[in-house]
Amino acid sequence: MYSTTDDKKNTGIPFIDENHHIIQNCINELCEDIAVHKEIDQVLEKVDTMIQKIEPYLETKAACQQRNACQRDIYAHHVIQALLDLRTVISQFGQAMSPAAATTEIRQWAKLYIFEEDLKCSVCARDISKKLS
Q: pTM of the prediction?
């Protein structure tokens, strides 16, 4: 389970940290549904809901990155595409995948595409605030 108070995931940027809380909750709910063997359609519905919840966050973050000419390795559309690809895998192989394998894939997606990537924003935010002062 992802902790919503894990300091390693906090960037110090309220907008990002608040959305991390939302994303962590979505990931935890999704993994819980998989662990208790909910129907694939219900799991896919959760994935779709998560996409809807994080798209505005990713778009706002991308606008901030563009506005401040931030270095970024992963763009918003890549994050969504990776989640859609994961959704496809779950829909095609969900019944055959072990819950442990599925939850590992979901948590890896979150770690790579959200939490680790967003840590770069905290470095950028510090640099921007130094330039402004």
A: 0.80
